[in-house]
Amino acid sequence: MPINLDDPKKFRTLVGQAHQVAMNMLRPISRKYDLAEHEYPKELDMLAAMIDGLAESGASEGAGAAGVRRDEPTDRSGGQVTNGTNLASVMSIQEMCWGDVGLLLSMPRQGLGNSAIASVADDEQLARFDGVWAGMAITEPGTGSDSANIKTTAVLDGDEYVLNGEKIFVTSGDRADAIVVWATLDRGLGRAAIKSFVVPKGTPGMRVERLEHKLGIRASDTATIIFDNCRVPKDNLLGSAEVDPKQGFAGAMATFDNTRPLVASMAVGCATAALDLTRELLASAGVEVDYDRPAHIQSAAAAKLLQLESDLEGARLLMLQAAWMADNRKPNSLEASMAKAKAGRVGSDVTLSCVELCGAVGYSESELLEKWARDSKILDIFEGTQQIQQLIVARRVLGLSSAELK
Ligand SMILES: Cc1cc2nc3c(=O)[nH]c(=O)nc-3n(C[C@H](O)[C@H](O)[C@H](O)COP(=O)(O)OP(=O)(O)OC[C@H]3O[C@@H](n4cnc5c(N)ncnc54)[C@H](O)[C@@H]3O)c2cc1C
Which atom of ligand 1 is found nearest the CA of 214? Predict the structure, then answer.
């Protein structure tokens, strides 16, 4: 069967709309909120209302991080598979990040905590938390990549869990309506005891301690949050409270299989923006890329651009594959990590190489190239670093457990 690499027809309107929003609403305020770090991008409220309207009308097909619950595949004819909300999400997020990654991360109701809710919540919780904008808090002062080691505790007391601990680097930690917090029910029971809890903003005992100053994605707030005897209803534990050592970390990790392709799409979108502008700037300097001639007989700049384009295409295809597998309920941990590893690495390389190709223009603030090089680096760090993705891929390929390959 031939592979059709065109965008699925049913998503073309969505992708086109996302591109228009990126070009006309995000790009014009991109530099403003890069400079005004910690200022709330109020323009996004109107945009979020528009996206809500599209979602209600059923026209959006999952225009953001919120739309990543695994669809039932619709077996249309002869075992045919579906293109669903995961694919729609990566394609629209890619377009939005062509506009601005930091602003995309600041979009109300599109937080990574929303993906956790979509992945792990039961039907009652899905309905109860519908429309809530949720950040996600895993990282702690002593715990980053080794997320099985978290120390924040959740102790059942009557009908409530009592949370205690410190979370750092929480994206949208100040602005979101709620935070999905990872905490352990019992440190002695290891990773199986780690559960996620929805903590609404303003819950007594939860406080934002400070906001970070950052290299890039400055439009996005990144908070340190303290939980000091913070009580939440026991129904706010997402999914099952049962500690099943056989299940291990699988429940919590399922979130990442959905979110890693999304982060890959952010990297692809940002790098595409850099390549598009670099192509234009090179053309205006007389460097035209000829796609019908081998790279090695063209100018060094044209050959480099061709190499960057092909690297990015590899990342884009892995991203599409990982999202498509999620839509079709195929296990995609390997592909999600491959997509994130490739896109994170290529995203940083492409954006920085574009700065290099454009020289002083690339480095100065007259264009957004230097900003995109700063913005893209985080996409190779959060949701699992480059090294951690490679570790996961190696474990899957070699059939080794996390205890066997560290
Ligand atoms: C802007 C920003 C936003 C963020 N948003 C969130 C958020 O919303 N929620 C959240 O919970 N966290 C968030 N984070 C935290 C982020 O997920 C962590 O920084 C990341 O997981 C890495 O953890 P660490 O910083 O503790 O680094 P470490 O885990 O200490 O790693 C340091 C270095 O060692 C490498 N390393 C670690 N272990 C291994 C190994 N076994 N093999 C090889 N190399 C290894 C890493 O790849 C890295 O290069 C955010 C971070 C930033 C900067």
Answer: 1
